[in-house]
Amino acid sequence: MKKILVAIDKSEYSVTAARAAIDLVQLQPVDDVRFVHIVSLKPGQLGTDDYPERPDVPEEWPVFQEPLAIAREAGVPVTCEVLFGNEAEMILHHAREQDVELIILGSLGESGIKEFFLGSVATRVTAHAPCSVMIVRPGFRLDP
Questions:
Q1: CB count, 10 Å around CB of 72?
Q2: CATH assignment, 3-136
Q3: Neighbours of 77 (CB within 10 A)
Q4: What are the residue ranges spanned by the domains of the chain?
């Protein structure tokens, strides 16, 4: 496998997705693991603690700290990216653009129950992905 995209938000679900990606890399070599955070900004959000003014240094964003710690502990190099736009659309666009072979996401994102009524990002990504999609729930672990 060459490329894995892991959708990261502020939820425990995305931390589980990051952990699943790292477990997978320990079972099968992967050339490129990307942690991707999608931001739909509202006026005044850029420059806050959650959304620093430097999207070009995503490794410093708070949202990536726990997933990065998991990767570093396992000795797995990852790339972090911040994209701006609709979550599902940006995940799908990035997966196509980067020839991703597997997308890993949590079954719920930071918005939780709201997604039940609006149609979840996971559902939209699964329906339209150009590659395989792995949906994980908190507590999921592969056994490396």
A1: 12
A2: 3.40.50.620
A3: 9
A4: 3-136
What Cα–Cα distance (Å) separates residue 16 from each residue in 13, 56, 76, 93, 135?
5, 25, 16, 23, 10
Encoded tokens for 58: 């995503």
How far, rounded to the nearest angstrom, does the alpha carbon of residue 68 sit from its chain's CA centroid? 11
pTM: 0.84
N-to-C CA span, the chain: 16
Residue 114 tokens read as 């709201």
Residue 100 to residue 118: CA distance in whole angstroms: 26
CA distances from 130 to 73, 94, 103, 110 (A): 31, 10, 9, 24
- Region at 3 (left for phi over 0; alpha for psi -120 to 50; beta for the rest): beta
At residue 76, the 3 state secondary structure works out as coil
pLDDT (tens, 9 = 90+) of the chain, 144 residues, equals 799 999 999 888 899 999 999 999 999 989 999 999 998 766 566 666 666 656 678 888 889 999 999 999 999 999 999 888 889 999 999 999 999 999 999 886 544 444 443 458 888 999 999 999 999 988 888 875
The structure tokens listed for 64 are: 């990536």
